Q: What sequence folds into this?
């Protein structure tokens, strides 16, 4: 790891598959194999990707995002899908909320109130608010 908590991502350099494995394994351990949104814990898996959990990047690598804890969140596969579609968002108070209820299945359900994330004990490992804002900007949600 680098001094800034990252995994030495340099723009223009291809990312080796083992970097993804090391990063995902590290994050899964930091989160205790628990979904940050639902709080559900899962058994560690011998393979990656984990069958139940995903390491979601707020600023994707294709958008020059980095493999750093401040750009990532461990969530269940379903929550990762909702985050990637802009249905689920994270506000600056580290609460998950439904930003686009019209995209829920079935549509028309009343969205639940915001839910506080379950994050690692060390705030230095929490998502950066700038990464959260970047993710919201992808879907023009503030």
A:
């Amino acid at each position: 790891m680098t001094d800034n908590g990252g995994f030495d991502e340099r723009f223009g350099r291809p990312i080796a598959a083992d970097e993804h494995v090391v990063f995902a394994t590290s994050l899964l351990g930091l989160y205790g194999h628990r979904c940050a949104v639902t709080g559900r814990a899962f058994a560690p898996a011998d393979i990656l990707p984990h069958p139940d959990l995903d390491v979601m990047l707020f600023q994707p690598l294709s958008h020059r995002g980095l493999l750093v804890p401040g750009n990532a969140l461990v969530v269940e596969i379903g929550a990762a899908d909702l985050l990637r579609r802009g249905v689920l968002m994270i506000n600056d108070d580290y609460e998950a909320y439904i930003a686009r209820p019209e995209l829920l299945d079935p549509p028309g359900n009343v969205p639940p109130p915001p839910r506080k994330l379950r994050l690692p004990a060390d705030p230095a490992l929490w998502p950066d608010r700038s990464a959260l804002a970047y993710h919201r900007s992808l879907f023009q949600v503030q």
Notes: The longest strand covers residues 53-57. The radius of gyration is 15 Å. The longest helix spans residues 17-30. The helical segments are 17-30, 77-84, 129-138.
